[in-house]
């Protein structure tokens, strides 16, 4: 009997570690997360349920250790399988809850700047790895978006960091950071360490862009109250103010030009993760819907036996199949820069944006169709399709949204000069 696991993953590409992680997250998720999933929506402000679950995922399952070298207690996931591991983890977590999935994986996201070959920063690894590999919950947050706009900051190719308003001024051996961020995943009281996109000089373009780590308990860091959103309740999003916050000069990830360069790798990995969350959403929706159309009888026969239903059911199965292929191909591109190009190249950013755009659009489409097939039951909280329907829209909105996806794809493939 086909299940969501029958949609084709490239089995010969997946390392043994991917299967282990996949199984581990699946087993934990079914036992610990799924039974409380419906209650998470009510927990958006307090995170009384979410926080212990986040600890279980990041600390007890060890996801927080993924990037760090083994001498610090890390898992040291090899660079050549990191894309695939991101795909597997985002898909498995996305099946449960794409809001929780983003919260888990964003803890690692800012650390990609310094923990991944070939741009490891040994001094910062020594400083931060023990915090992420310890027994206490320690959460990362990638603070890019600002009140005047998120997309322009993520549109590095077009805007070259010119619109960043959070400033970093070097005074002696300290950076002094001043600015206002909002929306980042894990912001508010969840985050222990911010990776902050700032500028040392907005008119210097990419040379002026700086990526600087700021511990949440540094003097002058202030966070706001969680926003109430349509979905993604497991992800806490707030304002963050940096009011002349001082951090050591070596907390900058790399240096002029290099911070902007490697920041693009965060966008590439963010695209792969977004595609993974989308695949997770589509597969969980498929499983819920499959049970429903088997049992629900309309006009004397099971819902699935009507040709009008087949139109929508085939769309959902096709999306699950094709999006899975695209996800693992995007991951493979990341894992093999010698064949497909560097993960910070305009090409990889554009190609993975294409995969993210396609898969997230499909997640929105499939949850919508599933709800139509289930009628009012799909709209009811009882069956969780409406949860995926609300959450999945966000997968098309962050990181500059569909428009920036389309712009970056077109700019690369059609060699646009002004777009
Ligand atoms: C659940 C959630 C998680 C998030 N996680 C993070 C995070 O971890 N870190 C973080 O920093 N932020 C995060 N965000 C913020 C999110 O990434 C931004 O909201 C998003 O990038 C869009 O920025 P904006 O809302 O300022 O919209 P704007 O930048 O004002 O964009 C407005 C519209 O313009 C479109 N657009 C973009 N570029 C162009 C262009 N060149 N030409 C024409 N139209 C364009 C956009 O697609 C959008 O439709 C998160 C938000 C949510 C809700």
Walk me through the structure.
With 419 residues, the protein is an alpha+beta fold. It has 3 domains: 134 residues, Butyryl-Coa Dehydrogenase, subunit A, domain 1; 118 residues, Butyryl-CoA Dehydrogenase, subunit A, domain 2 (Beta Barrel); 154 residues, Butyryl-CoA Dehydrogenase, subunit A, domain 3. It is 49% helix and 12% strand. It contains 15 helices and 9 strands. Strand 2 and strand 3 form a beta hairpin. The chain is globular and about 80 Å long. The termini are far apart. The model has no long low-confidence stretch (mean pLDDT 97). The structure holds flavin-adenine dinucleotide (FAD).
Secondary-structure blueprint:
Blueprint: H1 16-33, H2 50-60, H3 82-96, H4 98-106, H5 112-115, H6 122-132, E1 140-143, H7 151-154, H8 156-159, E2 167-171, E3 174-182, E4 193-199, E5 209-215, E6 221-223, E7 239-248, H9 258-295, E8 297-298, E9 301-302, H10 307-335, H11 337-340, H12 346-374, H13 376-379, H14 385-395, H15 401-413
Parallel strand pairs: 1-4
Antiparallel strand pairs: 2-3, 3-7, 4-5, 6-7, 8-9
The structure holds flavin-adenine dinucleotide.
- Percent range for helical residues? 40-55%
Number of continuous helical runs: 15
The ordered H/E elements are HHHHHHEHHEEEEEEHEEHHHHHH
The biggest sheet amounts to: 4 strands, antiparallel
What structural class is derived from the secondary structure elements?
alpha+beta
Main sheet strand line-up: 2-3-7-6
CATH homologous superfamily heading of the largest domain: Butyryl-CoA Dehydrogenase, subunit A, domain 3
Spans of at least 5 consecutive residues with low confidence: none
CATH topology label of the largest domain: Butyryl-CoA Dehydrogenase, subunit A, domain 3
- How many separate domains? 3
Instruction: Work out the strand percent.
Output: 5-15%
Under the CATH scheme, the architecture of the largest domain is Up-down Bundle
Principal-axis shape equals: globular
The end-to-end span amounts to 48 Å
Look at the structure and give the mean pLDDT: 97
Small-molecule binders here are:
flavin-adenine dinucleotide
Radius of gyration: 21 Å
Given this structure, which CATH class of the largest domain is correct? Mainly Alpha
Number of beta strands: 9
> Quaternary arrangement of the chains shown?
single chain
């Amino acid at each position: 009997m086909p299940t969501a696991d029958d949609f084709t993953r490239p089995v010969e590409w997946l390392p043994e570690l991917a299967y282990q992680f996949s199984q581990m997250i699946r087993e934990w998720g079914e036992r610990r997360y799924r039974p409380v999933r419906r209650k998470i929506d009510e927990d958006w402000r307090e995170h009384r349920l979410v926080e212990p679950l986040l600890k279980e995922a990041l600390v007890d399952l060890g996801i927080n250790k993924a990037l760090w070298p083994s001498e610090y207690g890390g898992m040291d996931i090899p660079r050549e399988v990191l894309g695939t591991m991101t795909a597997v983890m985002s898909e498995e977590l996305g099946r449960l809850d794409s809001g929780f999935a983003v919260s888990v994986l964003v803890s690692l996201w800012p650390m990609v700047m310094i923990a991944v070959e070939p741009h490891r920063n040994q001094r910062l690894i020594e400083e931060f790895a023990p915090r992420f590999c310890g027994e206490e919950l320690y959460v990362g947050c990638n603070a890019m978006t600002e009140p005047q706009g998120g997309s322009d900051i993520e549109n590095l190719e077009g805007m070259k960091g010119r619109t960043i308003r959070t400033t970093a001024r070097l005074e002696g051996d300290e950076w002094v950071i001043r600015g206002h961020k909002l929306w980042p995943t894990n912001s508010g009281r969840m985050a222990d360490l911010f990776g902050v996109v700032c500028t040392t000089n907005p008119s210097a373009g990419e040379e002026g862009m700086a990526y600087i780590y700021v511990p949440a308990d540094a003097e002058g860091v202030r966070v706001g109250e969680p926003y109430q959103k349509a979905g993604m309740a497991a992800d806490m999003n707030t304002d963050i103010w940096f009011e002349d916050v001082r951090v050591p000069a070596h907390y900058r990830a790399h240096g002029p030009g290099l911070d902007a360069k490697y920041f693009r790798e965060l966008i590439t990995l963010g695209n792969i993760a977004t595609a993974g969350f989308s695949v997770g959403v589509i597969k969980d929706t498929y499983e819920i819907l499959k049970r429903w159309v088997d049992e629900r009888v309309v006009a004397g026969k099971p819902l699935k036996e009507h040709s009008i239903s087949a139109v929508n059911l085939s769309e959902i199965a096709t999306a699950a199949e094709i999006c899975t292929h695209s996800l693992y191909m995007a991951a493979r591109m990341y894992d093999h820069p010698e064949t497909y190009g560097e993960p910070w190249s305009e090409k990889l950013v554009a190609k993975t944006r294409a995969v993210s755009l396609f898969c997230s659009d499909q997640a929105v489409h499939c949850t919508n169709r599933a709800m139509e097939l289930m009628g009012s039951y799909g709209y009811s909280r009882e069956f969780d399709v409406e949860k995926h329907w609300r959450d999945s829209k966000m997968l098309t909105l962050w990181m500059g949204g569909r428009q920036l996806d389309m712009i970056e794809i077109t700019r690369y493939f059609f060699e646009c000069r002004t777009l």
